[in-house]
Specification:
three-stranded antiparallel β-sheet, single chain, 113 residues, ADP-ribosylation fold
Length: 113
């Protein structure tokens, strides 16, 4: 299984489950949902979510996503998966609470190791 990951607020995920699709907070403003590969996860978490609480990590089965996924460069020589459309929630096969340490930094979840 090809897995991509997405970090979001717990409340956003709960709302998505009610309507059966997830739009995140960037689909309308940027045209896509930001995701990362397992190797990119901690860098993304510590850059954009430092010290934030109430987060969940969505494990997404790439092959079940109905919207187009493009790997695009955000940084030099690194491509990130972007979902161009609403995410069908049946593509999400696992959700875990994603909490940072006392220093506000995230560590790699044992579930992915």
């Amino acid at each position: 299984m090809n897995t991509i990951l997405h970090i979001t607020q717990h409340e956003q995920w709960e709302q998505a489950k009610l309507v059966k699709t997830y739009r995140g907070d960037t689909l309308d403003s940027e045209g896509f949902i930001h995701c990362s590969t397992p190797t990119q996860l901690i860098k993304v978490a510590n850059t954009f979510f430092h010290n934030q609480k109430g987060l969940v990590l969505l494990y997404i089965d790439y092959d079940k996503v109905k919207a187009e996924i493009r790997y695009e460069g955000v940084e030099e020589n690194e491509l990130f998966p972007h979902i161009y459309g609403a995410l069908n929630i049946d593509a999400v096969f696992k959700v875990i609470d994603f909490e940072h340490g006392e220093d506000g930094l995230f560590e790699f979840p044992h579930e992915i190791e």
